[in-house]
# Entry
Amino acid sequence: MSEWRDRDPAAVVDDVDRPVLLFDGVCNLCNGLVRFVVRFDAEGRFLFAPLQSDVGRELLRRHGRPTDDFDTMLLVEDGEYYEKSTAALRIARRLDGPLPLLYPLVYLPAGLRDRVYDLVAENRYRVFGKTDECPVPEPEIRERFANRTLE
# Structure
């Protein structure tokens, strides 16, 4: 996947064959979440792309989402996108350990689940801080980023 770096973002997106987690690349909480998912995704099921990246924006555009709104995590899976708590629960469902046990929470009303999600999202910079730019991931997970500008 390191060959993705030099390709047009649309071509990269065309070749993606795994779920992609889109996240706010400057958010410390979001970057911690990516590291958490990597830790509990031993099979490497997920790819990652910062919402601010060319690939992230291309995925947003293809799903009719604003390309300048970075307030939610999105999961692009099998041609569909999921956001907020639904995305988080769909991710948990595919992780190792006891995390899939959280998936039945998807049957709670989305409005209730998303209120909790929105509360965390609204305060994430204040509580966890943010960086000036998306950090380059560690070498052991860099290949899982569907982003052509990592190096």
Notes: The chain has a mean pLDDT of 85. The beta strands are 20-23, 47-50, 74-77, 80-83. The longest strand covers residues 20-23.
